[in-house]
Design goal:
The chain is of the alpha/beta class and 255 residues long. The chain has one domain: Vaccinia Virus protein VP39 (Rossmann fold, 3-Layer(aba) Sandwich). α5 packs across α9 and α5 crosses α10. The longest helix has 18 residues.
Length: 255
């Protein structure tokens, strides 16, 4: 590794940080309300999606299903409305990274949170986590290589990064949202949901996998579907971070 390896990484990730498209004004005006209702499953299509998305939450939480798992220290990236906590009742030490205060400030689960950070760069460098988790978050992160690098540094010796994502970039995933939330969004607002998806999902599932495999020696994947190409969701379990790569890229997060 060394300088050559770092330059290889820079070339691989030359498209980062990603730049989000500008939303049309009419979508911007309803964005906050739509986003929160989407996370909470408040409409018919969203309620159906939330039931399917329970797979994402369950995969991330399946290592903390017993009281003896309560000692595991957790950091969740993109905690949103704190809905993942409903699947992690045994976890006692739980920190979150979430820049949008409006999403979680009224949550009845807020009392279970130990520390709140608006960005992963704010997490003290001395802090170590047995679990770093994310549910439907990595596809939104514009500077994904730096965030994953920082995650590798913050993991404890036998820590695990547990991440679930939509299979963004595949035909099945695209058909899935077009025929459900996309139709509902069009009927309710008369607007193109595809523009909102393009704004929110800056990373495809394949790009996410590429980043994870660059920074971790051991990356395992499970899918909700027949294969990676024919699936709605993916779950990744990452161990043994490559610390030299993590240290090189994490530095650019704080630059």
């Amino acid at each position: 590794m060394g300088r050559t390896d770092y330059l290889k990484g820079l070339y691989m990730f030359k498209n980062y940080p990603k730049i989000q498209i500008n939303l049309p004004r009419e979508i911007e005006e309803i964005y906050a309300d739509h986003y929160k209702s989407n996370r909470e499953g408040q409409t018919t299509a969203k309620s159906l999606s939330k039931r399917m998305e329970s797979w994402l939450h369950q995969q991330v939480a399946n290592d903390v299903t017993n009281p003896q798992d309560s000692a595991k220290v957790t950091l969740e990236l993109g905690a949103g409305t704190l809905n993942q906590l409903r699947y992690e009742s045994y976890v006692h030490s739980y920190d979150i990274v979430e820049p949008w205060i409006e999403l979680y400030k009224s949550s009845p689960l807020l009392g279970r949170i130990s520390n709140v950070y608006s960005d992963i760069s704010e997490v003290p460098g001395s802090r170590r986590y047995d679990r770093i988790t994310s549910v439907a978050t990595l596809e939104h992160i514009c500077n994904l290589p730096q965030v994953i690098a920082r995650s590798g540094i913050l993991l404890a010796k036998f820590g695990v990064l547990r991440a679930s994502v939509p299979s963004e970039g595949t035909l099945l995933w695209t058909l899935g949202w077009k025929l459900t939330t996309g139709v509902e969004f069009k009927l309710k607002y008369g607007l193109n949901y595809g523009l909102l998806m393009k704004y929110e999902h800056v990373n495809t599932a394949e790009e996410i996998e590429q980043v994870l495999e660059y920074f971790f020696n051991d990356v395992k994947c499970r899918v909700f579907g027949l294969s990676k190409a024919i699936s709605l969701y993916r779950y990744y379990e990452c161990r043994n971070p490559i610390m030299e790569r993590c240290n090189e890229f994490a530095g650019t997060l704080e630059a």
